[in-house]
Amino acid sequence: MLHGTPTVKEAVAYRAILDLFSQASGMEINFSKSTIFFFNTHPAVQTHLSQLLGFRIGSLPSKYLGAPLTLKPWQKIHWEKVLANMKKKCSHWTNRALILAGRLILTKAVLQAIMKYLLSLLPAPKGILQQMRNIQRSFLWSGNGDKKKWALLAWNKLCQPKSMGGLNLVDPWVVNRTYGDKLWWKWIKNPTLPWARHWKEKYTPDCDTQDLIRVQEILEGSSIWNHAKNNRNLVQEHSFWEIRNGRLAMFWEDAWQQFPKLDTPQLSTIKQTSQN
Questions:
Q1: The model's pTM
Q2: What are phi and psi of 108, to 5 degrees?
C-alpha cells in the first residue's frame, strides 16, 4: 500500500520505483489486482494519473489483505461474504454420505477456519456471530447448513473439551474476543515493532512502555485498535507482576505473585490503614 499526493510528478516517480523493483526482483506488476484511490481530487486528474500508473480507479469501501477498509466494520454487509462461503461449503457436502465424525472434522477444519481470519481483525455484530453458530450447528447435526434438525447437545456443551463431554468446537464469540486479547498482548509484549510503535505514538504518547498494561482511559481509533482495546480485560485481569527489585510493580495497585488485585473490603481497609 503506497500513499502519495495526486500529482503527475509523484505518479511518475512511483511508476519508476515499481519498474525498478520489477527489474531487480524479476516479478511483474499485476495491473488487474492493482487499484488507485483518490480523495478530494478532480475527475480529470484522476483519469490522467490512472493512465500514467496503469491502475484502475477504485472506490470505498474496498478490501486490503482480505479486510474491509471501512469505518463501520460492524455493518452486516462486510460479513456477508464470510457467511456465503460457509453456506457454499455446506451445500457442496450435502451430496456426501457423511457420518457425525466426518461432519465434525469438516466443521473444525473448514467452517471454523473460514470465519477466523476476519474475526481476528474486526469486531463482529451479535447477529453475525449467531448466524455463524447456526450454520455450524445445522451442518453438524443435519449435514446441511440451511436445514434445521433437532440438536442432541447444546452448542455450549459442544464447545467444551472432550474430557468434559464436549467436542472441542470453538464458539465464534470466543474466537472474536480472544483474537482481540491476543492483539493487545502482542502490542504490550513487542512495543518495538513498527505497528506497535505507531499505536504507542498515536494512542498513548504520554504513557511509558512498562505502564501499557495499566492503561485504563484510552482514545477511540481505528477498527482494529478498538477491537484490541475493547477486549483487553482478559489480558489485564490475568496478568501479574514479578516483584524483583520492586521498582516497577505497584504494591497496592498491581496484581503480583499471581494474587488478584487488592480490591476486597478487608484488603482495602488494610491499605488505607497502612497509608495513614
A1: 0.69
A2: -70, -45
